[in-house]
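C-alpha cells as discussed.
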C-alpha cells in the first residue's frame, strides 16, 4: 500500500475535476458497443500530461475496469509465483503457446475484486472471491482474470471462469451471493475471456468450451438460475451482445463456428448461422437495421458479414453465396481479430494488427485500409466519442482518428505499459489498464 500512497502523493500537486457521474457498467460500456455521444475527456495525453492518477494493481488481469458513480471496479488474480502476461510477440513465440498448455499450474491464486475511488485512485476495498489453484492452463499472453466484471449500480458481479465461480458484492464489498458454474477445458490451453453482461435484472454469461458449452442467465439479486441453454461443445472467447434493432431486442452469442440469436427473456433460439467457421474472439456490433459479425482466426478466410433485422430460423449462407435474404452482404479476408469492430453512423471500423479498415455498412464496400503508424497488435476494443474514434495498441499508443469515409489521423498518444484490456470511459475520465498500472486520463485544471 505504501507504493500506492507514494504514487498518489507524487500526483497531488495537480488539481483535478470532480469524479465522473457517468457509468461504464460492463464490457464495452452501457450498450456493449463502445459508443459515447460527446467528448468530455482530453484527447491528448502521455505519461506526464492529463494523467489524473496512475496506481499499481496487484496480480494480473486483462479485465476492463467498470464504473458506477464514484467507484471503479476491476478483477485480478494474485500469486507470488505467477508471471506477468506477455505481449503478443513474446506470447506466440513461447513454447507453451506453440505446443499448447496441457496442465494448469500448481500455484495457488487469490481471485480478487478491487474497488477504487474514481477521483483519487485510492483502493477502497479488496475482496477475495476464492483462493485456490486454477482449473485450466492459459496462454502466456492471457491472464486468470480476463473476464470483465459488470455492475447494475447496486452490485458488482465477477465471473472467474478458470475456477468456475460467479460472485456478487454490494458496492461496499459485502458478499451477496456466489455460484459455482464449473470449470471446463479450453482449446489449446488458451484460457478464457468471455465477459458477462447485465440485462433486465439478469446476469448473463457465456461459456463455450471443449466439454459442455452453455449460456446462462442468473437473477442479479439472488444468483438463482433463470434459464440455461446447452450449446454442445467448442471454444469461443467472444462476449454476449444485446442487439437492439427496429424489430426487437436480441441476445447475440458467437460460438464455435456458429452465430446464434436468443430471446434474452427466455433463452429461446430466434435464428442461427454457421456461415463463419471456428471460434470467435471479437464480439459483434449492430444498429437498428443490421448486425455485423466476423472473425480472423489463424489460417482462415477471415469472413465478415451483415445480418438483417427480423431474421428467423437457420440463415446460413448457401454454399458459394455471398448474400441471401437475411445476409445482405459478406466479405472474405475482412473479419476482426481480437479487437471488436465499432460503428459510427453508416460506417464500420475494424482494426487488425497495425491496419485500420473502414466499410460502408449498407453495401459492405471497403472504403479504406490504412496503416496506423508504429501500431503493434490492437487487442483492446476501440471507443468513439462524437466524431473521434480511439484505438489503443498493446504498446500504449492511442490513435485518434476522425470518423468519416476518408482516413484522417488526428493524433497519437503514448503511455509506457502493455495494454490488452479494453478501456472504460466515465464522464470526463478515460481508464486504461496496463499490465502494471491503472491509468486515469482526465483534463488538468
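Sequence:
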Amino acid at each position: 500500500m505504501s507504493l500506492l500512497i507514494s504514487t498518489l502523493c507524487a500526483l497531488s500537486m495537480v488539481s483535478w475535476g470532480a469524479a465522473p457521474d457517468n457509468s461504464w457498467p460492463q464490457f464495452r460500456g452501457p450498450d456493449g458497443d463502445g459508443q459515447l455521444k460527446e467528448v468530455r475527456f482530453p484527447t491528448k495525453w502521455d505519461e506526464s500530461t492529463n494523467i489524473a492518477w496512475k496506481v499499481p494493481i496487484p496480480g494480473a488481469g486483462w479485465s476492463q475496469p467498470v464504473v458506477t458513480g464514484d467507484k471503479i471496479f476491476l478483477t485480478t488474480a494474485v500469486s507470488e509465483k505467477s508471471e506477468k502476461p506477455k505481449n503478443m510477440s513474446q506470447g506466440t513465440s513461447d513454447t507453451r503457446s506453440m505446443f499448447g498448455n496441457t496442465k494448469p499450474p500448481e500455484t495457488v491464486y487469490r481471485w480478487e475484486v478491487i474497488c477504487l475511488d474514481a477521483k483519487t485512485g485510492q483502493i477502497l476495498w479488496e475482496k477475495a472471491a476464492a483462493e485456490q489453484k486454477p482449473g485450466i492452463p492459459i496462454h502466456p499472453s492471457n491472464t486468470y482474470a480476463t473476464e470483465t466484471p459488470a455492475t447494475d449500480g447496486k452490485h458488482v458481479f465477477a465471473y472467474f471462469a478458470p475456477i468456475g465461480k460467479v460472485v456478487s458484492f454490494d458496492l461496499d464489498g459485502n458478499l451477496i451471493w456466489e455460484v459455482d458454474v464449473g470449470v471446463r477445458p479450453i482449446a489449446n490451453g488458451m484460457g478464457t475471456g468471455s465477459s458477462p453482461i447485465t440485462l433486465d435484472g439478469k446476469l448473463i454469461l457465456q461459456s463455450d468450451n471443449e466439454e459442455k458449452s452453455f449460456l446462462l442467465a442468473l437473477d442479479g439479486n439472488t444468483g438463482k438460475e433463470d434459464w440455461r441453454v446447452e450449446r454442445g461443445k467448442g471454444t469461443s472467447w467472444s462476449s454476449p451482445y444485446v442487439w437492439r434493432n427496429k424489430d426487437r431486442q436480441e441476445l447475440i452469442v458467437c460460438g464455435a463456428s456458429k452465430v446464434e440469436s436468443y430471446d434474452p427473456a427466455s433463452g429461446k433460439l430466434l435464428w442461427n448461422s454457421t456461415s463463419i467457421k471456428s471460434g470467435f474472439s471479437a464480439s459483434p456490433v449492430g444498429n437498428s437495421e443490421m448486425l455485423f459479425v466476423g472473425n480472423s482466426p489463424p489460417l482462415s478466410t477471415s469472413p465478415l458479414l451483415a445480418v438483417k433485422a427480423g431474421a428467423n430460423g437457420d440463415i446460413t449462407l448457401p454454399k458459394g453465396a455471398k448474400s441471401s435474404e437475411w445476409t445482405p452482404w459478406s466479405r472474405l479476408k475482412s473479419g476482426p481479430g481480437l479487437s471488436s469492430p465499432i460503428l459510427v453512423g453508416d460506417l464500420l471500423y475494424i482494426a487488425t494488427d497495425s491496419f485500420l479498415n473502414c466499410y460502408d455498412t449498407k453495401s459492405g464496400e471497403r472504403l479504406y485500409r490504412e496503416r496506423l503508424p508504429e501500431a503493434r497488435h490492437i487487442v483492446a476494443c476501440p471507443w468513439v466519442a462524437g466524431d473521434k474514434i480511439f484505438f489503443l495498441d498493446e504498446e500504449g499508443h492511442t490513435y485518434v482518428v476522425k470518423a468519416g469515409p476518408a482516413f484522417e489521423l488526428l493524433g497519437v498518444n503514448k503511455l509506457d505499459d502493455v495494454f490488452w484490456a479494453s478501456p472504460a470511459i466515465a464522464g470526463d475520465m478515460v481508464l486504461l489498464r496496463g499490465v502494471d498500472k491503472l491509468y486515469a486520463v482526465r483534463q488538468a485544471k
